[in-house]
Amino acid sequence: MIFITGQFFPNLLHSSQKVISMKKLLLFLILALTSCTAIPQTQVAGTVDLNNLQPLPTPEGHEAVSLRVAVAAVISPKGTVESYSPFLDYLEAKLNRPIELVQRRTYLEINDLIEHGEVDLAFVCTSAYIQGHAAFGMELLAAPQVDGKTTYNSYVIVPVSSDAQSIADLRGAVFAFTDPISLSGRVYPTYLVQQLGFAPEEFFARTIFTYSHDEAIRAVASGVAGGAAVDSLVYEYAVARDPSLAEKVKIIQRSPDFGIPPVVVSPFTRPQVKAELQALLLEMADDPAAREALASIGVGRFVLIDDRVYDSVRALIGVIPTSAVQP
């Protein structure tokens, strides 16, 4: 549709040659309308079924874009590569695209990658999920189920020769934290010490950060630390792989059940990618080819999980001074 106003044709409205101008205008409109009718109409070739979309084939000579998978430093970098390699190989084969493992020293560094869409899929700590969900909308994808449960605990451990029976007996000891925002490795033991009326820096002779749970276990086993708090899943997995650890460390205190560390995606992850990854994880337990991949990370299957299972952790974090659970 063509709109004509005095703004664009002021002379047509005020010129003494108004009649001649109007004739020219009419001729212009006739020519314009005639040329418009000469344009061929677009033909509809067919319909598109939006419910049956298939991925476009990778053009010849172009490599598929890597899927970036981040794993928080629950275990050491070397341990992560060893444990997750069969799992990542399985994803690579099923998705028919390269997988790139991304590691960082701290949980917050992994959260930063997720926040900015620099990774597609991530395995994170429970408290890191809670922080990321509140700060930028980190999204739950699935949860690992271990021995039929989607919960885990914090274990307070000491050398097997220690007389300590609870964290209250570790006053004046060197204590190993894992990550600054780890639920099992720092938040929970900080809560226990707070219940005794102290801050960690007042209660312990010294605290150290190991930046992984397996390193915290080793710190206690070797006598570098007089105590530590670690992820129960990592502890059980480590002892199963190296039974000699059970002869060097012992558990003196267990936390209540907490919602298990989940698998998450960035809010920038495309819905189609999210759906594909979620379906793949949920179907792994029914695929015989996935047994080694699941066993390598100590998981029975992946299941859907509701955000509300983490409310008890939120309540726990809420009573801890912010300064006590931040780097």
List keywords for this structure.
327 residues; alpha/beta; D-Maltodextrin-Binding Protein, domain 2; six-stranded mixed beta sheet; five-stranded mixed beta sheet; 12 helices; globular; disordered N terminus
Could you provide a short overview of the structure?
This protein is α/β, with parallel strands linked by helices and 327 residues long. It has helices at residues 10-14, 18-37, 77-95, 107-115, 126-136, 183-195, 200-203, 213-221, 232-241, 271-283, 291-296, 311-318, and strands spanning 67-71, 99-102, 121-123, 139-145, 151-152, 154-159, 174-177, 206-209, 227-231, 249-254, 258-259, 263-265, 301-303.
Could you describe the 3D structure shown?
With 327 residues, this protein is of the alpha/beta class. It folds into 2 domains: 67-150 and 260-325, D-Maltodextrin-Binding Protein, domain 2, CATH 3.40.190.10; 154-255, 3-Layer(aba) Sandwich (D-Maltodextrin-Binding Protein, domain 2), CATH 3.40.190.10. It has 12 helices and 13 strands. The strands form 3 sheets. Strands 2-1-3-12-4-13 form a 6-stranded mixed beta sheet, sandwiched between helices. Strands 8-7-9-6-10 form a 5-stranded mixed beta sheet. Strand 1 (67-71), helix 3 and strand 2 form a beta-alpha-beta unit. Helix 4 (107-115) runs parallel beside helix 5. The chain is globular, with a radius of gyration of 31 Å. Mean pLDDT is 83; it is low at 1-23 and 25-56.
